[in-house]
Structure formats: C-alpha cells, structure tokens
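Sync notes, pocket subgroup
Present: LS, DG
LS reminded everyone that the earlier model was apo-only. Rerun requested with zinc ion included. Inputs:
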Amino acid sequence: TQGQVITCKAAVAYEPNKPLVIEDVQVAPPQAGEVRIKIHFTALCHTDAYTWSGKDPEGLFPCILGHEAAGIVESVGEGVTEVQPGDHVIPCYQAECRECKFCKSGKTNLCGKVRTATGAGVMMNDRKSRFSINGKPIYHFMGTSTFSQFTVVHDVSVAKIDPQAPLDKVCLLGCGVPTGLGAVWNTAKVEPGAIVAIFGLGTVGLAVAEGAKSAGASRIIGVDIDSKKFDVAKNFGVTEFVNPKDYNKAIQQVLVDLTDGGVDYSFECIGNVSVMRAALECCHKGWGTSVIIGVAASGQEISTRPFQLVTGRVWKGTAFGGFKSRSQVPWLVDKYMKKEIKIDEYITHNLTLGEINSAFDLMHGGGCLRCVLKM
Ligand code: NAD
Ligand code: AHE
Ligand code: ZN
C-alpha cells in the first residue's frame, strides 16, 4: 500500500449535529514530513462532540473528527526519520517539533510548527487535505482525524510507544487522561497536603483526582451535578463530594465554608464559564490557583471581579496537561505498563467504528467515561 491511495472506512461529519456517516474515503499517501497510520482503536472525547456541535470557531465541515487513538505506522513520507512502518504510535493533537519558538522556550508544551494547518483542517506542505471522497476533499481535525481506519498526520505529531502496550487501552493517552494528570503535575504543581477542588467528574476530572492523589493532596473535593459520579470517583482518589444542587448558596461559598477560607487548587473540567468563575472564586485568598481545562463554546467569555486576582488568586489554563507530546506520551505509556497510572478504569464501553453514533449517545447519556471504538 506504500505510495498508493488507500480506500478505507471513516466516520464523516458533514454538518453540525447531523449523524456521522460511515463512508469509503480515499486516504492519499503521506508527503514529506508526514506519516500514514492505521488506527486500531480510538476513543471519543467531549471535544469531538463540541466541534461536531458547531460551537467550535475552528470547526470545519465536512471533516473527520477524533483525536484520542492508537495505531501502527503504515508508511512515511520523505524525510521522516523518527518513525517507520510497523512502529506503534499515538497521534498527538499537540505537536512537538523541538525547533520552534514555543518548543525552544522551555515554558510551554504548545508547538507552533503545524498549528495553523491543523486549525485549518489541512496539511502543512500544500495546505490541502489527504482525505477525499470521489475527489471531494474532507477536512482533517486537530491534526489527527482518528475516526478513520487510516489517517495522515505530521511527523511532529507522532509519539512512538512501547510495542507491547495494548492499543485498546493506551489510546486514552491521546487526550483525556494526560490532560487531567498533567494539569495537576505540570500546570498547578500541586504539593503534598494541598486541598483540591475538581469541578466535573468525567474522565478529565477523574484524572485530575488521580494526579492529585499521587501528588499527596490532603483533601480532594469532587463537585458534580450528577451524584451518580460520586461512587466511581472514590476509586480515583476523591475524598469528599459536593452536589451544587443540594445547596441554596453559591457553590464557591459552599467550598470556602468547607475549607476554612478556600481551596489551594481548583480545576474546571466541564467547559462552563460560570463554573470557571466559581472555580476561581472558591480559591484561598493570597495563593489559591485555579486551572481551566474545559473547552467553552464560541462567544463564551469568563469574568470575575479583578479584586479576586488583586488579592492573590491565580487563573491559569492548560492544553494537554502541559505535557510535551512526543517526549512524554511514551513515558506515560511506560507508567501505565508499570501500573503507576490507571487507564482501564476510565473505559466504560467498547464498540466498533460502525457504532460511533451510539457511542456519542452514550457519552451524552451519563454513566459513560470513555468509549473505545475498534476500527
Ligand atoms: P465529561 O462530560 O465526561 O465530564 C464533565 C462532567 O461535568 C460530567 O460528569 C458532568 O455531570 C459534570 N457537570 C456538567 N455541568 C456541571 C456543573 N454545572 N457543575 C458541576 N458539574 C457539572 O467531559 P470530559 O471528557 O471529562 O471533558 C471535560 C472538559 O474538558 C470538556 O470541556 C473537554 O472539551 C475538555 N478537555 C480539555 C482538554 C484540554 O487540553 N484543555 C483536554 C481534554 C478535554
Ligand atoms: N478550537 C477551539 C479550542 C479547542 C481547545 O481548546 N482544544 C484544546 C484541546 S481539547 C482536547 O480535548 C487545546 O489543546 N487547545 C490548544 C490548541 O492549540 O488548540 C476553539 O475554541 O477555537
Ligand atoms: Zn480530547
């Protein structure tokens, strides 16, 4: 198949919110600096649903969504040296070129090399898509497009992993789990004894809990409007639960009262701008730090009284938990293999690519953390 167009199945999003359609798509061979990957397993993340909903200002249609996956390299384009056919890999929506201003800064995991192309749904080389149906181009998504049996990505977006690692599990290391762990370890740098509040106990929030537990947090307070989340959250390290619906005062006040003045760290894992405000305002005066992880819809804005910051609270955000993708995803895979981090516990459902619309229904229905699709 090397150098040839591959025809395979992919789930195509033609329009916002219209069911995905399983189509035969043509996947062009990788050009210079590109890698074609046979995706073996992909999970669904709420960011896929967000873009599909039409609320993402970068959303383009028709496109192939998906960004939490694992597979095996099928072929590589000219000049690609770090991976070869047969390598087991995780496609990474956050690239790491090690050459750009961002990568060299030592201050961020964001990479500038291919970001304009991935945001425009095309490849860097010729600003065109490698996906088409009968000659009509289909846009890429987040530089990954893993809802396809084959995808083409930039070489700076490919993490080569241990070939022994089970692809149906480590696919989760493409997004949600590293995001939560890294928000604690890299962005907030939670220290032993700290009091932590987590808003939203989906996969991202539970990974925050896991990270906070391993960092030695003394109290991990889980906040969710769905009380069914509380039972499972205990297994990830959450020590106390608060359902905002049980109180008739603002949730920030509830947390301040529970913690003698506020939490040391809070994490917003929902994508709701009023919760983001509450997450900042439940932080302790003088030092409390709040990390935004959730992705909010186009047009939404955060606000608070500047006095909240004047009096020492800190507002931060994180993308992919601050992890350098190509360097650190393989390290996370190794940590999973050594049983130092969980993955299996986040997988509540297993379906096939053909069942992807039901998988999204499950995701919206509650009771689902991650659903992994076999391709
Ligand atoms: P999820 O939907 O599984 O979890 C969200 C949780 O929040 C649910 O348990 C829900 O019951 C709860 N919730 C909803 N409204 C609430 C409210 N008002 N108060 C308290 N709880 C509430 O989602 P997920 O997959 O864990 O992702 C969480 C968010 O993180 C999404 O916005 C996703 O797009 C974003 N995300 C960001 C990054 C990043 O790099 N920054 C990476 C992955 C995901
Ligand atoms: N396109 C959206 C932004 C979406 C967003 O913030 N994405 C996160 C990852 S979410 C993964 O589930 C991210 O990493 N952002 C940094 C980046 O470079 O995209 C919008 O609002 O425009
Ligand atoms: Zn995601």
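DG: The first strand starts at residue 6 and ends at 12.
LS: Residues 176-188 form the longest helix (13 residues).
Action: DG to write up.
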